[in-house]
Specification:
Number of helices: 0
Radius of gyration: 15 Å
Number of strands: 11
Mean pLDDT: 96
Low-confidence stretches: none
Shape: elongated
Helix content: under 10%
Order of helices and strands: EEEEEEEEEEE
Largest sheet: 7 strands, mixed
Structural class: mainly beta
Length: about 120
């Protein structure tokens, strides 16, 4: 099986920074897109940023210029550097990865989610 384990959330003051990490482990042949999503109370889960295996990135308009997504393919890990944090960034942040595994029947690719990490921006 495949597991995604997130870390790095916490409480920070407005204008502060946090760095989230998400490490994938298990039976992995390759990882395609990786990304971060977030869900605030009473709202739907929304895309924050994604990164392809080749390093191409995509960001939600609300975080452009403040957040940076990166990945270390050797470590099967994706990061989210969050700067200039605002109270409206408060949410549970989830890691997502499209992971391919070798099976007796061929390659199987599925999307996996982490358990989520709380980010709270408040003074």
């Amino acid at each position: 099986q495949v597991q995604l384990v997130e870390s790095g959330g916490g409480l920070v003051q407005p204008g502060g920074s946090l760095r989230l990490s998400c490490a994938a482990s298990g039976s992995i042949s390759s990882i395609n897109d990786m990304g971060w999503y977030r869900q605030a109370p009473g709202k739907q889960r929304e895309l924050v940023a994604t990164i392809t295996s080749g390093g191409s990135t995509n960001y939600a308009d609300s975080v452009k210029g403040r957040f940076t997504i990166s990945r270390d393919n050797a470590k099967n890990t994706v990061y989210l550097q969050m700067n200039s944090l605002k109270p409206e960034d408060t949410a549970v942040y989830y890691c997502n990865a499209k992971v391919c595994r070798s099976t007796p029947y061929g390659t199987s690719c599925n999307a996996y989610w982490g358990q989520g990490t709380q980010v709270t921006v408040s003074s």
